[in-house]
Amino acid sequence: MRRGLICGVLFAGVAVCALAGFVAANEDDIVTGGRLAAMLSAGRAVISSHQTLINDETLGNKNLTGQRVVDEALAIFAQRKGDSVTDQNFDPLDKQLFDAQVASIKEVVDEHQGLINTMGLGFKGFIPSTFARLVNERFEEKVGDIAKVKLTAPEELIRNRKARPDNWEQHVIESKFLSPDWPKGKSFTEQVEVNGRPSFRMLIPEYYSPSCLTCHGKPKGEVDVTGYPKEGKAEGDLGGAVSITLFK
Asked: The pTM is what?
């Protein structure tokens, strides 16, 4: 059963707003968007934790299969959410979206086994951000008429043009997330029109952790292992955002 509507209050740390002409954000949309963001984050955490393994040029078969990454990501997801996937209250649409995301994670990792297992090659470029982009693209191929997931960031931090924020994302980043009085970690949701379709949009801020600073920290301008100049950021600075769109 779909739960009730809420407006102008906080639910699970998410600010809920609505434009004139649209109904208030549905609590279920917030849960669905948060779940998709959490699973993507868990998958990225797995890829991040295995960077030394992935870049080990002396080892061939690393046994880092798609199923292994999915299993480890589900374990992280359960730990962070406080319950397992089987305990989640899925409705049919939720289940379709979550299954599509899990399948996308597995397929992307399996399709890159040749790269991951290449001997004689150190840094392979299969980093969390690249992994997430590929997973989101595969997810869109599967259910793009229903939902989309995207990683974006403030315009000046974008390294891949595919991650550039659209007008709505840029506005939320500038007016909300970069505002000194915006509560750190709080997401923003809104009912808006996307390409003529009523849609639920959710933007979740992300901040640099110590592991991010290897590529994004100081000294500013120094070229990192990926070939990009470092941004000179510090732990806790806004580094990006997860953008969720659910078409109504």
From this structure: 0.86
